[in-house]
Specification:
The chain has 294 residues and is an alpha+beta fold. Helices cover 43% and strands 13% of the residues. The protein has two domains: 2-94, 434 Repressor (Amino-terminal Domain), CATH 1.10.260.40; 105-275, 2-Layer Sandwich (Beta-Lactamase). The protein is built from twelve helices and six strands. A six-stranded antiparallel sheet has the order 2-1-6-5-4-3. A hairpin with a 3-residue loop joins strand 4 and strand 5. The model is unreliable at 276-294 (pLDDT under 50).
Length: 294
């Protein structure tokens, strides 16, 4: 409990050193009483409730490692600061066993400097960590909340598959299961990753069959069709960039210059991002914990 009490002031300090503009926050309002980000802003970015952030800062909640990683991304913590937060939250023994879930500064800069290209950052197990505004406008996916609906494998087998159509769905499913198996082999002691795999196997017969059949393949670059509700189908090249050492994947959508899809993407960069840039200040936040097990 003492370590949780130590974590609270640190969270407040880290929250206080950031401004909404530092994290690309679209909130459009600021508090005259409190410097830095408000609890509501941190909650939205991390995918938890404002009350949960308050309890964390008061040392009255015990966050999972997944919650700590989500807060680290929201607060732009360094590697050393993230390790400190994990230790104070009681996850020091997991530091070497956990699959990396932190966006590095160089990847953050890349994400910030590609506003005209839909880009999202995923961890090695295909959980979406962050995205730019154009990705949100194109796919309709809300900014990563840190729950299982942010995981591509989960969505393929158990959730809402979203707007993206794959040219060869069966091959795609087999390859993404094989990819997840490779990651699970590298991080056998990551409890959240193990929980994800277990839940998928219990709830999806197809996933269990592919996992047990040693499905092979690699989730790679392909042309995809995104079915946008207003602009119709948009055919885009999908490139996957792996960041060695950080265990991160970037999915990047681009259009052939001069094509109809390029025109639609350009239009979306104007009208789509405007619609998602100013959420109402009174929007409710659904209480949740990131990466909670079954």
């Amino acid at each position: 409990m003492e370590t949780l009490l130590e974590l609270g002031p640190l969270l407040r300090t880290w929250r206080g050193r950031l401004q909404p503009a530092d994290v690309g926050s679209p909130f459009g309002f600021a508090s005259s009483r409190t410097p830095g980000l408000r609890r509501e802003e941190v909650a939205r970015l991390a995918g938890v409730s404002p009350d949960y952030v308050k309890r964390l800062e008061q040392g009255r909640a015990h966050p999972t490692a997944g919650v700590v990683y989500a807060l680290a991304r929201a607060l732009r913590l360094s590697e050393a600061e993230t390790a400190t937060a994990l230790r104070l939250a009681g996850h020091a023994s997991d530091l070497r066993a956990l699959m990396p879930r932190r966006i590095t500064p160089s990847v953050r800069r890349l994400l910030d400097r590609l506003p005209d290209t839909p880009v999202a950052v995923f961890d090695a197990a295909w959980s979406r960590l962050d995205q730019n505004a154009l990705w949100t406008a194109l796919t309709g996916d809300p900014r990563g909340r840190g729950d299982r609906e942010d995981n591509l494998v989960w969505r393929v087998f158990l959730g809402d598959p979203g707007r993206v159509r794959h040219p060869r769905p069966e091959e795609y499913r087999a390859s993404i299961v094989a990819d997840l198996r490779r990651v699970h082999t590298r991080y056998p002691n990551d409890s959240e990753l193990a929980s994800l795999v277990s839940a998928l196997g219990q709830r999806s017969d197809e996933f269990a069959r592919l996992w047990g059949s040693s499905a092979f393949g690699e989730h790679g670059n392909q042309r995809k069709t995104i079915d946008h509700p207003e602009l119709g189908p948009i055919e885009l090249d999908c490139d996957i960039v792996t960041v060695q050492g950080a265990e991160l994947r970037l999915i990047i959508f681009t259009a052939e210059p001069g094509s109809e899809s390029a025109e639609k993407l350009q239009l979306l960069s104007v009208i789509g991002t405007e619609r998602i840039s100013t959420p109402r200040p009174d929007e409710s936040y659904a209480p949740s914990e990131v990466g909670s097990g079954e």
